[in-house]
Amino acid sequence: MNHLATERPLSAPAFDVAGIRAQFPILERQVHGRPLIYFDNAATSQTPLAVIDTFRDYFSRYNANIHRGLHTLADEATAAYEATRETVRDFLNAADRREIVFTRGTTEAINLVANSWGRANLVAGDEVVVSLLEHHSNIVPWQLLATQLGIKVKVIPVDERGVLDLDAYRALFTERTKLVAVNHVSNAFGTVNPVREMATVAHEHGALILVDGAQAVPHQRVDVRAIEADFYAFSGHKVYGPTGAGALYARAELLEAMPPWQGGGEMIKSVSFDVPTTFADIPHKFEAGTPAIAEVIALGVALDWVDGAGIERIGAWEAGLLERATAAVSRIDGLRILGTAPDKAGVLSFVVDGAHSQDIALLIDQLGVAIRTGNHCAQPLLAHFGVTATCRASFAAYNTLEEVEAFADALERVIGMVR
């Protein structure tokens, strides 16, 4: 059946998706004899040739350790690495490049805040507010501090659409509330949270706000100063970059006051057994040891690629894909979409009566379609909705309307096989 024929045209502006796709060689693959349809972008997006070529260029021409060498290769590697810091600063509209700390990704960034700022500023009885929409990486670090320090973790509830209850959020604050840790976009449902409003409420109560931006930066313009984030974290592999590289934004005055989390080379000024060790200036005191140099450089290239494609145009295109996919799968008997917020990013999460999500994912893979199944590292959220797993299709700049149609047809075929 043709799921698209009766739909109205996309409201997105003209978008050269064919030109975008040509830059992603993996999309030329066939899986089980069928053209690959990659709808697992919320887990990891694919990388364009510009990013892939960065690795060959780095390892072919200037592979060297950074910051400490005086030779030409070290100078070139250091310059390229630090250029990415400026790229990230500009991408997030941070005020100062010193406010950008490179990490392995969002998970490490949140753990850095928990183990540095958290241990230095939280005591027994203090409160950290998270939401039911959170990824485990923004739950477990605070639970560990609750066990170790005696702090309390409080949870913002959601309604039946997967939208945060802001009245309940405001009611959670007490004089002991020190931090709000919330995602910008839910990886499980695609809900876009009103983080600017949430930041205002937190600051009115004297609390800070940490925003998990892993699922936001691929889809929308992020301005950390406009949303008044105190901390903002994201991962490169969600935004057309490599795994193993991401960044934490934190206001400079917070970083200045925070103690180092990990010790080693690069994060020190001097080390002695006779006098106290002194630490490097920010951000380097949080970047112990040799980093993922090539990955960080490639992250900068990925962000430049996004800027070139136009993040607003990417977001509009993905919104159209989500609209079409939602309409198409809604016609399937027994299929229930989880996460129906009015403001969503390109994530479609669903369950099917009488069918196990794992069976659907395995069978639809045989038709060349890659989707994600499981709890999406959001077990508390799924448990709240009475399920242990969902199927999740998620979209990126290189996905097409034809792929949406093929996905809907394949899904209907697979459901007919398993029920």
From TrEMBL:
EC number: 2.8.1.7
Keywords associated with the record: Pyridoxal phosphate, Transferase
Annotated ranges, domain Aminotransferase class V: 37-407
Reactions mediated catalytically: (sulfur carrier)-H + L-cysteine = (sulfur carrier)-SH + L-alanine
Co-factor requirement: pyridoxal 5'-phosphate
SUPFAM superfamilies for this protein: PLP-dependent transferases
InterPro entries in UniProt: Aminotrans_V_dom (IPR000192), Cys_dSase_SufS (IPR010970), PyrdxlP-dep_Trfase (IPR015424), PyrdxlP-dep_Trfase_major (IPR015421), PyrdxlP-dep_Trfase_small (IPR015422)
Family according to the record: Belongs to the class-V pyridoxal-phosphate-dependent aminotransferase family. Csd subfamily.
Name of the protein in question: cysteine desulfurase
